[in-house]
Amino acid sequence: MEKKQCQGAEDESFDYYQRAQWLRAAVLGATDGLVSIASLMMGVGAVKKEFRAMLLAGFAGLVAGACSMAIGEFVSVSTQYDIEMAQLKREKKSRKAGDVDVQDIIKEDMDKEKLPNPVQAAFASALSFLVGGLVPLLTAAVGKDHKVRLELVVGVASLTLIVFGVIGAKLGRTAVGRSCARLLVGGWMAMAITFGMTKFIGSGGLEL
């Protein structure tokens, strides 16, 4: 009983803000990789039946997307880091030397520990993008028939989005149903729009 109470106390006192720094980057990267590559392959599959075309497009998107996610996340988090550091420096200067006590020093150290890490965020985004993007890429290799291949990509991508939603909700202590629904609907919309628009352009006589 006491053990359960201790675990509950630890759960309540756990700093989910620190976890959110890498969790946000990881979930965003994995979801983006999954949806981007699945949509890209659906778009190519709308006008090309050859697996080679889908494979090359998916691989190119996987590499380019991972690099883009890493650079974008690094720049974004670095900007956030600079802003928060500047704020801490302003707060430190605003205090008079005689007014600084132990509590102020402890608070300043804790604030610095909570600052975002650009390198960590960039690495998490790139790695998770690769993991997410590999799912539809490997799935497409299983289906030999073109129609079956597209159905497998949609089906597996949908299941994986649900898994990502559950993982993100459990780690972040948020509503599971809302998290899964958000990812699933967003993924379906991305794949449907990409497939439909590419099919429309291809049917218009544009040679791809």
Describe the protein.
The chain is built from seven helices and no strands. The protein has one domain (20-154, 186-198). The radius of gyration is 22 Å and the shape is elongated. Residues 1-14 have low confidence and may be disordered. It is mainly alpha-helical and 208 residues long. Helix content is 86%, strand content 0%. It is found in: Vacuole membrane. Pfam families: VIT1 (PF01988). It is a multi-pass membrane protein. One of its GO terms (molecular function) is iron ion sequestering activity.
How is this fold's topology laid out?
Elements (H helix, E strand, L loop, with lengths): L1 H12 L2 H30 L5 H44 L7 H12 L4 H25 L3 H27 L3 H28 L5
Helix pairs in contact: 2-3, 2-5, 2-6, 2-7, 3-5, 5-6, 6-7
Taken as a percent bin, the fraction of beta residues is under 5%
Count of domain modules: 1
Largest sheet: none
Distance between the termini: 66 Å
Relative helix content: over 70%
Series of H and E elements = HHHHHHH
Put the structure in a nutshell.
This protein is mainly alpha-helical.
Based on the model shown, name its key terms.
single chain, mainly alpha, 208 residues
